[in-house]
Amino acid sequence: MNSEDDHDQDWSCDEEPLLLEQGVRRDWSCLPRLAVNFIYRQLNAIDHTQFRSVCMEWRGHTKKREKIPLVILADFNQDGTLKGLSLFDIIRKEAIVCLHRATFLPVRHDYYLGASHGWIFTGQIVVHEECDYPFESHRVLRINLNNPITGSLIILPLLGPETKLGGRVYLLGRPDDLEVYLTVIYYVANEKGADVHFIRYEKGWPDVQWTTFSLEVKPCDVVACFEGALLCLL
Amino acid sequence: MATIITKEQQEKEKMVTLVSSDSEKFVVEQKVAEKSHVIKMVMNCCGIESPIPVRRVKGDILKSILEYCEKHSKGEAQEVMEKWDKEYMDKAEKDLVFFHDLMLASHFLHIQELVDLIAVTFAGMLKMKSPEEIRQKFNINNDLTKEQEEHIMTTFGWAFQPI
């Protein structure tokens, strides 16, 4: 069968991989380029990333995916907390339901506070027993940053005690610096205007506290972060 | 005067013999062998009279592949085929060595439907697994540098854009 040689280009490693005997270990990193190509097209955004992170061969045979944002699907309980959270992959047209358990089990009764830079933000009212606040103010807001792709979870210092719910979290800073250093803003409208809480959070530096200032004029709903500034349309 | 060919002879002419790498012989209908693009090309250029060696595929794999090709040359209802394919893959994925060789052989013989089926099955085996879990299951060495690993895990800004 002379045509054999014509097909050698499809093999990435072993010249005669099919002649291996039973019991000989198969090298899964050395799959034909075409095979890897067929496989990775079947994978959703998160599985695709995990696949590319296995070894150099698989990484070399696959392209980065188009950077099309995932859609966040959320289901809420009657009290407004999250009942379930999943992502929808527009390219594969499939829901990514089972996210990292370690990250997403605690999120289930949190309030949804937004998402950006590849992270999802949630908040939880916790009773903080050690603080000096009056009894009724022991309930403080704990903001969590979840990265569903890496499974990372950042728990920010407690914010309270009068913090209102129903706000949004914004991040200032470059995404790839997030785990080392980031500025987080929690923006929440009140009766008169809005409260803006911010914190410069560094990993391994837990003593850092939130700073709060208030806007006297009530802004519109249009709030955004751009080049290190929080922009509100008044 | 036209030669009269009996039905039996006609059937016989449509049979082709394939020989695996370990010299196992398989006699199958031409339309079954044609499912492989590579074998089809060989039959087109060399005919089907003499046995066709499939030197890179072992007997047990070739047998399984021909079983697949035979089923898929019958033109049965889609539901029946899907059920059959699922059972075929369930069996194949239990033995990773066999599954690996089946994947390579389907690519080598260029049987597109089987290539797709195996890709979907393999992707299913990778779903919801961390890179480390995948490496353990398939016995793969991690040869990525620390920088590469970190880069992969920290460049997901696109995943959720601010609204």
TrEMBL record, chain A:
A Pfam family this chain is assigned to: F-box
Start and end residues of each F-box domain: 28-64
InterPro entries membership: F-box_BR-signaling, F-box_dom
Highest rank taxon of the organism: Eukaryota
Protein name: Uncharacterized protein LOC120280251 isoform X1
Species of origin: Dioscorea cayennensis subsp. rotundata (White Guinea yam)
From TrEMBL, chain B:
Pathway assigned to this chain's UniProt record: Protein modification; protein ubiquitination
Keyword Transmembrane among UniProt keywords: no
UniProt GO BP: jasmonic acid mediated signaling pathway; protein ubiquitination; ubiquitin-dependent protein catabolic process
Keyword Cell membrane carried by entry: no
Residues in SKP1 component POZ domain copies: 14-73
Protein role: Involved in ubiquitination and subsequent proteasomal degradation of target proteins. Together with CUL1, RBX1 and a F-box protein, it forms a SCF E3 ubiquitin ligase complex. The functional specificity of this complex depends on the type of F-box protein. In the SCF complex, it serves as an adapter that links the F-box protein to CUL1.
Name the record gives this protein: SKP1-like protein
